[in-house]
Amino acid sequence: MAKSPNAFRTISEAAAEAGAPQHVLRFWETKFTFLTPLKRAGGRRFYRPQDVVLLKAVKRLLHEEGLTIKGVQRLHREQGLKRLAHYGDPDGAVAFEPEGAGPAAVSAPAATGQSSIRLRQVLAELEGARARLEAVLSRSA
């Protein structure tokens, strides 16, 4: 049974669709801030349809158009994610959120700031949970 076009893809499925080996996808994630698959427990990656389009775009730009990694980074910085995605999905079949509207469309500095704020919130929640747990444990001891 085939997956829905909106279904998440495993790294092996994304690699097959993009036409690049899995280790290359992992490498590209280190070079391109806009490649951010969801990571679940154990580090398993799940790619959204937009992620697969971006993988196809990167492959095309690097292997067919002859751009360097820095060239693709510059293209993203100067022209944005939607323009970059056009190389992986020329027909525009996969919808992209407007620049800055979602995690796949956030630039590196904005993502870092938002991630930092969210991490502080999570830390505060964890510290609160730890305090409650310690209180419960001290009562039962």
Name some characteristics of this structure.
141 residues, mainly alpha, 5 helices
Short description:
Helix content is 60%, strand content 5%. It is built from 5 helices and 3 strands; from the N terminus they run βααββααα.
Walk me through what this model shows.
This protein has 141 residues and is mainly alpha-helical. The protein has helices spanning 11-18, 22-31, 49-64, 69-86, 108-140, and strands at residues 9-10, 38-39, 45-47. It has a three-stranded antiparallel beta sheet. Helix 1 packs across helix 3 (49-64) and helix 3 crosses helix 4 (69-86). The longest helix has 33 residues, at 108-140.
Percentage of residues in helical conformation = 55-70%
Q: Number of DSSP helices? A: 5
Largest sheet: 3 strands, antiparallel
Average of pLDDT: 83
Give the C-alpha Rg.
19 Å
Task: Give the N-to-C terminal Cα separation.
Answer: 54 Å
Cross-sheet strand order for the largest sheet: 1-3-2
Quick one: overall form?
elongated
- Total strands: the figure is 3
Could you say which structural class the secondary elements and strand pairing correspond to? mainly alpha
Low-confidence stretches: 98-110
Compressed to H and E, one letter per element, the order equals: EHHEEHHH
- Relative strand content: under 5%
